[in-house]
Batch of 2 targets.
Target 1
Amino acid sequence: MTQTRAEVPLTITGGRKRSVAGLSMSGLLTRLALYLFLSFVCLVLLFPNIWMISTSLKDSPQIFAYPPELIPAPFLWSNYLVAIQKFPFFLYLRNTLIVTGLATFGTVLSASLVAFGFARRRFPEREVLFAVLLSTMMLPSIVTLIPTFVLFTRLGWVNTFLPLTVPAFFGGGAFYIFLLRQFYLTLPYDYDEAAYIDGASSLRVWWEIILPFSKAPLAVITVFTVLSNWNDFMGPLIYMNKPHMRTLALGLQFFRDQRYTQWNYLMAASTLTLIPVLILFFAAQRYFMEGILLTGLSGR
Amino acid sequence: MALQTKHRPGPLARKEAWEGRLYILPWLAGFLIFTIGPMAASIYFSFTKYSVLSGADWLGLDNYTKLFGADRLFGLTLYNTFYFVILSVPLNLFAAFLVALLLSVQVRGINLYRTLYYLPVITPAVASALTWGMLFSGDFGLVNAVLQALGLPTFNWLFNPKITKLVFVIMGLWGIGGSAIIFLAGLQNVPRVLYEAAGIDGANLWHRFRHITVPMMTPLIFFNLVLGIIGTFQVFTGAYIITAGGPANSTLFYVLYLYNNAFRFFKMGYASALAWVLFVIILVFTVIQLRMARLWVFYEAER
Amino acid sequence: MTKQLSRREFMRNAGLAGTGLALAACAPVAQDGAMDDGSMMAEKQTAYIFDYDPTGTDAWVEADQLFIEYFTEKYPDYEIIREQAPWAGFTEKLLTSIAGGSEYDVIYGYWQWLPLFIENNVIGPLDDLIDADTEISADDFFDYAKETIEGETYGLAWFISGWLHWYNLSAVNEAGATTPKEMNVNGDWDYDAWYQFAKEFTSEQDGVPIYGYEMGSGRSVSVYVMLAWAWGTEQWNDDFSASIMDNEENVALWKWIQQFYLEGLTPLPGSSTTEQPISYTNGRSMATMAGQWYTRTIVQDGAPDLFDIGMVPFPTGPSGQYSVAALNSFYFSSSPGNVDPAWAWYKERSFSEAAASIYASIGGGRFPSIKRVAPATVYEWEDTEVYEAIRPILRTYRTSPKESEWINTYWNVAWDEMVLGTRPVEEILGQLAEESTALVNS
């Protein structure tokens, strides 16, 4: 047992160079087949996005041309300029960044602490409270929307960013806590135990052992939190009465009225809106994909 | 497994318990401040006639008796929802796991693929709605064009009550990026030492997968299963945007019906009753999951 | 052990107390707070408006700006505070605000809500305000411009859509056929002629169908009623106590509509809310039904560059010729905080000459609500003769007491079944009538 404990951290942090699975899948053909397959699935998955970008560059009559045309003719790059002038795009972007930034920071910080409590500290009420935590996800938010709004009205928080950011600092929601707890439970307790024997406090264990080993899940919940706040439309809609406090997700709704949708501008604004999240995801990847699995094609 | 922990002795237990409570305090406080009030209010509303436009009138159990007795749509929407859950949850779980395995392979450019596979999840729902209409249209949709080219029968996908739910199951697969990312992150937490030990024993690929990867991934499979069930029972957005419940109520899922009651018919009381019935249904399924988890979920640090 | 228990008990009690407190905090805010605000504002008189937010629709945004400028100049002592929401989420925003204690003097209306708003005493009748007003009287308005329930008027439309047929004039001329407009003038434009038109112009081009008529909007109850009037019936009996959807006329009419679907003269609905690439404006269906707001769509889709636009009133049925006036109105609070500025705003916004000309650019003005305001058109291809022909046959739809629930739960489903042809029309309508009657009496 003691032997394992000493070995494990070393192996995890240092052992990624070698292909442990030792498969002979590194042949050129195999890799080619893999790329082909990846690309095929990719193409199918990406079709809505390809169509979205194509629509964003079309003029209005071509959008519903028949049969449907994929290639815009002409390419109307100006749609993007028009789209961001239809509403104060950069002001909304700024608001979105503030809300998303604060909410994400609050969620990642507090969820990781709460999950640490649920996963690695024992206390009598733990199971019951965990069940309560899960149950908060089971009631459709449609029926709590009104009372929640009333609550924030009484707190005097309407027309501020507080309803969209403060709750994030209180655990950030069951989803993230549950997810982190599951990750924490996959880490052997031997690490903590060794530290406690050395006299470390639990806060230090959280900071120096759990967090460093949890870069992957933390990156994942960062991406998820950013995404859910970035695309949240109902929150900003009901809490912001002042137009200058609106966010991008709300701005996207302005391309549709009762009878008509300006698809090309909607798609252009949607494309612009998703780019920051896309960049974040690309950047966050190195945290959740340092390792390899059972195959590890060592062709690098 | 080799890394089973032994129980620690008790003197520190009380300190540990208080620490535990302290760590979960942010959530507990948030729950008491922001969550429990609205939840309790919705229970109260479920016993009232409440249009939101004016005050709530006490009805007693009327909403619930109507729901179980007179409301034909309650049964229908439950059926639609169960149909969707039963097909969608296992399919998505399986597909997400496969995609995660596929994306965990280390080859040049894999980062780009991972990003692209996640792209559909980022795309705003209003933006994908148009595309789905285009893809599945009976007259000119790409899906039918492909089927026709292959000599297969074509369908009016979005206007045939027998298959519209299947279309939603298929569309749901575009969203597996989220679950796949969770699996992907989990796959890298599998300690390499385990594979190495297995390698020495001469285990083959399948054995390693079956006896190391899968058991180590069970906490996350469990997570995605529980969340899949909780989330899928509340399926809403697609049907709301694309079909509005039609044709002939074939995609009127439970929460869409609930939403209609709340914000279209201004029957918030009845909607609350519907919500709490769904709450109980999901709770039952989750409790079953939690019970069964003891049989198959492996926690490295189970204490 | 005892210590532990009591601790647990403490936590439980604290939890219960918290719950009670939190629950109290969520009870809807009593709705008398805003009244105080009103009386405190002795100096400047303020009206609170809940309005639609047209951001993104440039013409509308400009019109709104012009109107506000006009209003502030005319009433310098009045202050207008508008809270606005986009169409998506409009109800959610309105309901949460009302539950949070907001009071609005004027609310942007949606006809499906009207009965519920009245039932909950959110809005009140306008009759007393009209009577008290020296500038206007009830007789100034066309009957079709009023949203009236049980003899009381709750809305005076600021925007009226008169529904008509739009057909592909180029295609008709190419085929050397008589145009529907000519038929209408000659008195030959009846439902059989409509059906024949659809049949004649349904064809195929390069393997893809071209439809003779796009019938989709007929599913809307307020459009369907126009056909029903022509056939001598409606959806409800006089006092809304029973559905008459299973009567002879409705059954015959549904069968008449059904042949369009079963014979492939009209496209099957692929989805109900997403726009369809098979449309009149791209030449894939030869005719359709819409209000004059459709002029905007026609221009945006570039249709006038593709073919000539033809317009004609709906045909004469066994019981006459009608067009439905689809109304957009504002509603007035049942307990307004400040009547003067609110009514001034209501009047100016809904039926002043200024508003008529300012809002003509977004499709209004063709069918004015008030007699002294002249009709306005915008595009040179619009057929003013057809507007003239429609005005005398305009009528308004009577809103059933549970409109929204009825449409979403029963009407749409019956319509889908008719389109699919899964059951005989008699059976579908029998069930619809039975369920609808049960609904309005529940």
Target 2
Amino acid sequence: MKLKSNISKIVSLVMLAVTLVSCKELPKEVEVVERRELCQYDDPAVYRSSYHSWIGKQPLKWRKVSQTEFRLLNYAAGEATQIAVGQVNGGGILANLNRWKREFDQEVLENLDGLETFEMLDGRKAYVVQLRGTFQKKMSGMPVKAEDWGVTGVICDVSGGSLVTVKMMGPEVEIENEQENLINFAKSLRLNILQTPTERSKKDTTEDKADGGGY
Amino acid sequence: MAKKKKNIGQYLLDFFSSFLLAVICLVLLGLLVWFSTLEMQDIGLSRALEKYYSHKTVFVIPEINGGKMIYLPLPGAYWVCCVLFVNMSLGGILRLRKGWRNIGVVISHMGIASLLLVGFVDHHESIHGKMEAFQGAKYDYATKFDYSSIEVSEFTAEGEKKRPYVIKHEMIKDLGDKMRRFTFKDLPFDLEVRHFRENVAVLNAANKVRGNKSGEIIDGFFLHPAEFDAKMDYFNYGCYLLVKPKNGEPDRKLLMCRSIGFPQTFDVDGKLYGIEMPNEIWNMPFSVDLINSVGEYYPGTQKASKFQSTIAWTGDDDEQDRIQTIKMNHPMRYKGFTLYQASWNEPVNGLEYSGFEIVTNPADQWPKVCLWISAIGLCFHFALKLSKYLGRETRKEKGSKQSDE
């Protein structure tokens, strides 16, 4: 009887100790003091996956958001504006610009004459199209319609029919405010091409730092 | 003569040093290993290890064949090993009759008990991480397995990142639907983290319909709880953030997920900040440059059977690269870090790729020593037994010869 009573006392004490230990809870407010040293993870030029193929200098007021299957770089601005960098293989510049025009129910272009142009991606010609009005399109089978909508689209042939597009879409008022940011961003875009160790060792490290950066 | 009454201490000592307890522990460990191996197919390696072998698991109920419960509650393997360690120490070493006849047994028991102690150290002190290396760049970091983090960085006007603040996994893993506020001494905002989930998908609101368990739509995207993929063995952590500027600017809502892979950005006080949710970044004291990686598949499958990598690596103290080939059972070791060849894939976008597992473990080489100790003990004991047997046989022969004479 005495033995059973002693054992039950020990068991009760152990269970009480376990219960007390497991009741620890973190506070509702925490001050964060730990900072990590920078490493190659923080260098946008270091290749981590196919989603890091393109990099550009992000305007301060843009918010970088999750990319999707067709949007290699994806940003938000203002209340409802989205900016997406995409890659299209095939169709040509004219066909893709006309596809955008049809979304605004506008007449298609016969040629690229008269369109605003500038240089991006090491001197390649980029075409700009400005679309305003009612946007109407089917997305995943569902019709999408937006009044007083705008698109500013930039399209550039990288090589042999492989196109890069930078498309900004949103309310007309917001689109007008972001024109300069869009063109500057497009001009800053570059492909994250890796160098072989031999080529890398030939480059001056100071030059590397100047080239780097840009989210 | 009346038997001397034992006190509670003696009963406990007898129980914990008994051979019966050792057998019970070994049977339990056998069951735990068997069930964990079966369940690993459904829930993945890391979750199976957490469920069966973690010190946080007191009891486990096995579930096999896609969640079918086996109503056989078993104690967690960690605690069974603790009991076995006590049992071996008391019964196999302390209470064993000492003498040259038993010295081999004592030594081998010491080796096994040390091995259990090594497991204890490994469980509590080792850290495992993964380094994904593509050809053509140097990698000096790994990401820790199953440890999420939230990193908050400021960017300079040129777009360069400053040293990030790190909110570690321990500070957010218990949140669920609750909220916790994080403050930073040098930043002009506080952060509220909520709705932390272990596994989510980031869905585009333009293409996907929100469900009951879906999170809020932010910038056209929302988080939805996703099933854990046992084959990928990959936790896609996610949460929602509220950035609260201290200067009265409006709050900003952000959506965080490990799979996004880069900082979600916003501006406060005219400066750009970014927040992202990688698995905890682990700085390495060396950098690795993948020269090439070679692999073979099992015939008719896409499962890699053999893979190895040749790397050029530079330690903190080194002036030049060292070239080394890493393959199965031939890891690289440097300053307490061990780098194993863990995975391999066909070249991605023309770039060769290798996945390395990085482990730090103060007890890294101890199992080898423990096994040598056990082996020496067993060899000594069996050598002793053999010599006794041979001696007995010789004496028998002599005896029978004498009787014949």
